[in-house]
Design brief:
Length: about 1000
Amino acid sequence: MGTPAARSRIDERAMGAGTTVRFALLVALLLAAGGAMMLPAVNSLHSSDRVGCQLALGIDPDRSGDMASAVNALSQAVPYEACMARYAPPPAQWQIFGWPVLLSAAAVLLFALLPVLKARRRRAVPLESVDKDGELKLLLAELAETAGLARLPRVVVDRASVTTGAVVFGRNRRPVVCLYGGLLACRATDPERFRAVLLHEFAHIANRDITVTYGTVALWRVFLALVLVPYLVWESTQVRGVLRWGTWSTDAPALTRGLLLPVLTVALVHLARSDVLRSREVYADLAAVRWGANPRGWDATTRAPEGGRLRRALGALREHWGTHPRWEERRDALADPAPLFGARALPVFLTGAAASMVTFHLLSYLSTYNMYSLWRVQLVVLAPAALVAGVIGTALWRTVAYAVLTGDPVPSGVRTGLWLGAGLGTGGLFTGYAMGGAEWLPQRPAVLLLVLGAGVAFTWWVTRCAHLWASTWRGRSLRPPLLIGLVSSTLVLAAWFAWWTMDGWSWAAGASANSTGMRQTALRMVPGADVARQSTDAARSAMVSAVVTARPALNGSVASPLIPAAIAALWLTPLAAWAIGRAPGTPRWVAGALPGGGRTVPAGEPVPPLRRALRPGLLGGAVCWLALVGVQAYLHTSQPGPQQRDSVYEVRYLVWLFVVLVGAAAVAAVIAGVRTGRAHRLAGTLIAAESAALLGIAGMILLVSADGCVEPLNTLRTSCSWQPAWQSLRWTLPYLINGPLALAAIIAFLVAAAGSTVGRARRRWARPAGGAGGPRPRSAGQAPGARSLGVRLGAGGLAAAAVGIAVVMPLSLARFHTLVPDAATAQSTTRQWSNVTAVPVSTATRARQVHAWHRLGGRYLLEHAAADYTYLGTVLRTAADTKNANLTYLARLRPTCADFGRIAGWVNGAYFRVPDPEAQSAWQALGTQAWNGSVNCERALRERDYDLFATSLGELIAAGKSAEKVTTRVNTVLSEAGYGR
């Protein structure tokens, strides 16, 4: 392990600091929250009957944000959207989308005025007014030249300040340095301090700290004035209304989140900004010392937190709240810059929380105006994913580089991942996830453990990739591989955020699939499926049930457009580093990071040959091919004839293909986990598992395309003809490609985690007492990395295939990914695939729901049905009295028949279900009877079929009676509740 003296020689500029990206994350949070937080306040300015539409829908307003209510709304999307468009339309888009623009414009204006305001507040005067002979200006110009500045910035003097310091403000191209009066006084008495303070401020200019710092300050102040204050005013009216009506018990979660949201935003922005500023202070110190400043020039003493545990915790919190680190911390950083190369818990946690909040706020823009599509969701979450990857990824790469340079053990990244996952989960809970604020916790809180797991998996993978690149990269700087790693990290995080947004939230909030609808869909998706002909065999039925159970979980692999690219990034990033191979000697980037020179860097654990990861993948691919042949041969023995084939047989075939592909990837991952060593086990399992899955997919496509050409292997066809798999398996092929690739990655992580856990336990038991487990020295003849041309060509071929899938799959699903579902599509899809359950409500709430249903359109439809029924009876009685019951006379009922058909259209989905079980039963019967009667009536009059016309009249009369039952029940409910009295 390196000593502090050795560590002090590491150049902190060897890699990007990542502080600018952290500022960008704060800016994104403030801009995204600008419109999202103002949406309810702006909505309150418009007259709205949103509650009435929710009641008519059958939603309890006290639980309007839970998953049952959301599914209920989607299952009646057509009437709900129509009701909202008429009675509670959203504000004009410019009122919401224009808010970030307004914030940006106001922030730019304030940023331009800040230098003037700061100089005026300090009553600063130009340097020339106190430097009559120009000697001070010459000295400052010399220091600016030492700092590498092209010219001396503008200098002003705050003569009233007695402190021996200075401050720089303005912007990078036009900085202003303000010297305090006390600093000028110590120029002669303490020239070392004068020089150190000026070089420190000039370092801020050279590091280009000013624009991002004061730009964020300007945006934050504008956000406080234009967003936070109006939001709090609106929120106070909500609280006052709740206290007035005594509904705190039901509205507490939503109101508490509403009150805590600005508190969390303020704390998060200030803590994150303060942490970044403290880091930049240390960077400025290091730059000043590098230019010859004496650290004792700005040395001071501050008391460390003392007392009990609580007092020390409060003291540490005050330090985190401040924008300048303690002098002791700055002095320690000059001796050992390790804090600048670590991923600390608080910044990581704040980054995760900010990312969750940015994602939630951005998605609120889409949901408000029904602009959801898979690609839009993917693009929205791409922004927070890129920012998190920039912040966390850079921090982890710096941590790994520092460990490599000092000989310290490379951290696993697990602890960082736990903090990241905790931040993501906390931010989601504060914004309400998919609960809309209606509950304190989601119905399935255990699903939130996936967020922690995702955070750990991400940071672990980033750390292993960084270690591999740091071990093999030969360039002068680690910045190129860092950029590659950040792009890959962005793809991975964006895919995860999209999946969590579209599927994970729903699972956590309690969504469940309709097994009957999913079964019918699965049977219809197979080629040549015949739903009416299904096997009763128990084993086959169980296999279809397994498909129904697994399909909702696999939908995310097809729904997220970037899933194939993210999977490719997971294993191609370490594969590229591994394929480079490490050359003998010290890498050039190490020499650049150690300005002292002449140092040797510990070799650490050697990088094993790439073939140890590729061979298990090739072996798994070969096993997969043999298993696929065996599956086809096995199913051929029970292949039914073309006339006897049912859809269950084809589902069995597809399931076997899927199982074989995933099983081969699992076998390859286990073998690679044993062969690649602990340092690169994760990279090895990923490469092996994905290689096996890719080769298996290639074999599967070949066998399916040539099905029928080898008689013992015939499965779906009996004649030989080349039919590409993407034609014969048009709807299921995405699942057979994306699904195994995604599961292969998950299996690789699990295998690597299990191997690391077992290996750690074995080393703990096998380690001798007092022994130290350090890296083994590398022998001179050991050949790290890949040297075989064949291995590299194989790796290149697999990489090309992975990139091809990452490009072709989104293009092939472009229509699906870009589709913005209309209300009718959302309604039919939800009714088919999701379980729509009626939530029990109180008698008073049920009466409110029926009343809203009645006044917003139900009464109109019932009155129309009653009028048609009355007219129908009048015509029939007249026909009977005049004995004129022929079709020529009865044809005058044609408009009535057509009107019954229009009523049926409203009943069967265009208007709300009746939020009362008894009335809904009669309402549903009305829809069926009116539709059948209308269709038969029109057909009978057109075809002059008297018997069919008589049948239609019976159906229409039954429809009229059902309408009377609905009216009677609705009037009873309203009368008992006191409506209309």
